[in-house]
Specification:
This protein is an alpha+beta fold. The protein is 42% helix and 21% strand.
Length: 95
């Protein structure tokens, strides 16, 4: 099972962040160094992602969407579900 980002993936995140993209900060919410924090035990709400990533609330959904697209191209899954109170929670998975 993949549970670490490769050096190339780390470089990809770093380059996109240097270019001003917000989505790498979303992905970093689910990392401990290069290690992926997998499973719903490490889930974050949109509000928590916005706070942890330093993204304004208005832009967090777009940043999450971009992070999801990047993850899919790297065989990662940034998945989400909607709680009964309408809040969305997201977690990282591989496979």
């Amino acid at each position: 099972m993949i549970d670490y980002l490769s050096p190339r993936e780390q470089d990809d995140l770093d380059g996109a962040a240097r270019a001003g993209a917000a989505w790498p900060r979303v992905v970093r919410c689910f990392l401990d160094g290069a290690r992926l924090l997998l499973g719903w035990d490490h889930a974050h709400s949109e509000d928590a992602i916005a706070r942890l990533a330093g993204i304004d609330r208005a832009g967090v959904r777009a940043a999450i969407d971009e992070a999801v697209r990047w993850c899919v191209t790297h065989r990662l899954h940034l998945l989400g579900w909607q709680e009964p109170d309408e809040a969305w929670l997201y977690f990282m998975a591989v496979g």
